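Many introductory courses stop at the sequence. We go one step further.
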Amino acid sequence: MIVKPTVENLAQAARAAGKKGPPPVHDWNPAFCGDLDMRIARDGTWFYLGTPIGRQNMVKLFASILRKDGDRYFLVTPVEKVGITVDDAPFVAQDFEVTGSGRDQAITFFTNVEDAATAGPDHPIRVLRDPATGEPSPYVEIRAGLEALIDRKSFYRLVEHASHEPVDGQSWFGLWSGGKFFPIIPSAELPG
């Protein structure tokens, strides 16, 4: 008998799977059960049937079973896989802390679902710029292809920890973290 996926079924399966740490969603390959009317807005708000999910513990629970396959996002349990909509990135990096300085600097980001990731080779930072306005959209990978949009206040604070470095014969303004330099903008494009 196939059970239609519901928020309640997914939450129950996620609770059971996560009792001994983060659920191993990368190891689960259940059959696709269809799409669920669930959406993550650009600001990190989760919606179910068009209504915001107000319980943060429920949001964290669903975030723990989120997986990205190709360009699509899914909630995955050992027995079901349902598609959801993500407007931009599934998480928002709302704060960070810095240890060290220069090339020895480490920047650890904290998300709206209480994940933490230290930027470096396994958690890269990337910045996209709107072609029309030039406005930056900075991201950091949190886990297994799932990124967090770095919120505006944190991005502006990051500038205090940035430096100019040569990249492919061009000077870039960017960030060191975890032994890797992440270019943000060509130095020549910075306002005078």
